Amino acid sequence: MDKVEVPRSSAPGPVDLEVLPRLESYRGHNRKDEETEFGSTITYDPVVQRSLLRKCDWFILPPLTFMYLCNALDKGNVANAKTDGWDKDIGLTGDQYYLLVMIFYVPFCLFGTPISIFVKKFSAARVLPLMMIGFGAMSLFTSIAKNFSQIFAIRWFLGIFESAMLPGVVYYLSTFYKRGELASRVGLFYAAAAIAGAFSGLIAFGVFQIKNPRHHAWQYLFWIEGSGTVTFALFAFFWLPRTSDTWWILTEEEKAVARRRILEDSSSEINEKFSFREAFRPFKNPLYWVWAMISLSLGVPLASVNNFLPQIVASLGYSTVKTNLFTVAPNIVGTVALLVLTFSSDYFRERSIHIMIPLAVSLAGFVLLGCINPLAHRGVAYFACFLLTAGASAPSVLVATWYNNNTPQESKRAVVTAVMVALANASGLISTNVFRAQDEPKYVPALATSAAFGGLCLILVASTGIWMRWENKRRDKVQGVVLSAGDIPTETLSEGPLNPSFRFMY
Asked: N- or C-end of the chain: fewer Cβ atoms within 10 A?
């Protein structure tokens, strides 16, 4: 195959029409024994590609998903422990509990980017399990902490160890999956967080039945979840492959196909050398600042749901046991909504509309919950909890996929993802500061703040999606062609959006 030459100017210019037939040859996957520009012949047998995807789906996704399940459990188990009197047993007073929830986000935001650089340089398959051992140990330490200052220190280190988990995994998956496959896989992985909400309620319900005069029931919760995390981290360290080229389970043919797939529709270069200067270059583009504002605004309603759903359900006046049980169904609904939206987004190769739908749903939930008396209208308030969970998780996954899809350079993608996730989690500082003890049980200021940020995010996403569609059509008109993001192999797009052949995935 002849090499596809693309213009290297910063403004869109005309595209040679002879390029188009060659671009078409990149799009199919039924060809065999095809000559590449690297001078080697690879077999694009669909059976080989399906086998490759099955191995990625069955041997990489499940362990990553369980890792994130442990991540979410260890981060949020204090909310369940609080329903069993943990805060009173260690002597927390006033807003100290809310301060402990908040302080987690400070190191979480500060250390996510530097640790993600280590993820890029030394492989997510090795760095993330080590971080997992760290946050599992913090959960174990929480079980024996006796006062506010000890828990404060533990939550600080917990934030450090968990900071790179989400950006690290999103980047890691982008090195195995094409752009049109990424959202559904990140969705499956991220579903662990929503499932964690359901599991945490079930685990807490079961653990709190333990009656032992020597220990509090909540101590068993931290012991069980922390020890499970550390044990699985040791397994993941030796199991996860660093790259497809070094993965022992793949055949040589599958390795060649894996490499070709990523160059066609994910990265401009595989295993590129990390450069600080290049990695931070995307932030010269105003579009990435818009994505930063989107990430910051979507993080407030997401953090509100993740951190305070048990407290919101508890405000309905149920007992400790029922409160934990009644958090299960909303989290299951949230998981289903997340998977439906991410798979649909991949199927249609569309991001912005699929982000707007759950944002609108969660916005309706916050408004509804803030406008009623939860004790007087329990049924309506509980229904609003389903709206919150149905709309909370999907925007985070799809926005992360969105800017990953439009950043073909690996080093830039790793840093951009880390910065954006840090900004989204910085919103946790806003959420935890507006959920105050004096506002119980309605939390009206917190609900209003979450709704306002969700509405802002909705406007920004809609505006960006419209602009991307307009920009793609403008480039088509200038160049006299009709191209979509899937028509251009990403290995020719080292300049990203500055390349005139670049088309946005919107």
From this structure: N
